[in-house]
Amino acid sequence: MTATAQREDHNGGGSRARVQRPDRPRLLPSSGIKRRFLLALAGPGILVFAFFFFIPITFVVRDALTDGLDAFRRVFQNPIFWSSLYGSAMLTLFSSVFSLLVGFAVALHLSRLGPRLRSALLFMIALPLTFSGLIIAFGFILTYGRAGFITQLLAFAGLDPVMFSRLLYSPIGLGFAASYYLIPRVVMLLLPVLLNFEGLQLTAAESLGATRRQALLDILIPQILPTAVTALCLVAAVVFGAYGTALALVGTRLNILPLQLYSMISETGTDFPAAAALALVLTAICSSIIAVGEIFAARGET
Question: How many domains does the chain fold into?
Answer without folding.
Answer: 1
